[in-house]
Amino acid sequence: MTADEIKKAALFSFGQNGFEGASLAQIADEVGIKKQSIYTHFKNKDDLFLTVLEDSLENDWSFLVDWIAQNQEQSIHDLLEENLYLLIRRFHEEDSYRFGLRMSFFPPTHLNEKVMQQVAQYESKFEEAFMPRFQAALSENLIEIEDARSGVLAYLSIVDAIFIELVYGNKERAQMKLKASWSIFWRGVVK
Questions:
Q1: For residues 168 and 151, what is the distance between their CA atoms, to the nearest angstrom?
Q2: How high does pLDDT run on average in the chain?
Q3: 153 and 67 co-located in one domain
Q4: Does residue 70 sit in the same domain as residue 119?
Q5: Range of the domain at 166
Q6: Are residues 98 and 26 in the same domain?
Q7: Quick one: 101 and 13 in the same domain?
Q8: How many structural domains comprise the chain?
Q9: Helix or strand holding residue 16 (H, E)
Q10: Which residues is 143 bridged to in the sheet?
């Protein structure tokens, strides 16, 4: 039995049932241990939840940094557009990504402040990850915007719209919103 096995079972349980619907007894059963054994690794359910959320956000951050590095030769247009479609794909294919996104919208009430702190830190990192590409495109006269930060924030507005549709709606509407908002966004920034 390891903390990683417990976190994996907790990720699934929190992702499927939310914080309130997940139980430490069910998580322990999934791992094949007694509920008390969880306390060897985590103080309580809150600690387990926050650890799983932090891991989810860190995994996503690592994925994003690696993905940007692997796609550094792409044009800014292709990189940004592909990232939007990737968000939708990851939401539907990756439990950890889906969990992190859902919990950023529906945190447990008593953990709201701690969850929002983690989410805000992640959003700041996300901005910083795309800032160099916007700065380079601006300095190369590929885009016409006030400043790189404004471009990143406008782009994040599209990301937010897609996230809302994924959490509250469905994949098809998310893709429709993506297509419409991306087209208008790009026409607004391209030279």
A1: 26
A2: 94
A3: yes
A4: yes
A5: 53-189
A6: no
A7: no
A8: 2
A9: helix 3-21
A10: 190
Which 8-state DSSP code applies to residue 143? Answer: B
In the prediction, which pLDDT does 16 show? Answer: 87
- Report the percent of the chain where pLDDT is more than 90: 93
Q: Give the closest residue to 122 by CA, choosing from 164, 41, 72, 65.
A: 65
CA pair distance 62, 66, nearest whole angstrom: 6
Give residue-wise pLDDT tens across range 22-47.
Answer: 999 999 999 999 999 999 999 999 99
In Å, the largest CA–CA distance within the chain is 62
Output the six-digit token pair for 179.
Answer: 């297509």
Q: Which pLDDT value is given to residue 159?
A: 96
Long-range contacts of 136-140, Cβ-Cβ distance < 8 Å, separation of 24 or more: 136/76, 137/76
Between CA 166 and CA 138 the distance in angstroms is 31
User: So what's the pLDDT on residue 191?
Assistant: 75
Helices (H), 45-170: 45-70, 76-93, 95-105, 112-139, 148-168
Residue 109 lies inside a defined structural domain of this protein: yes
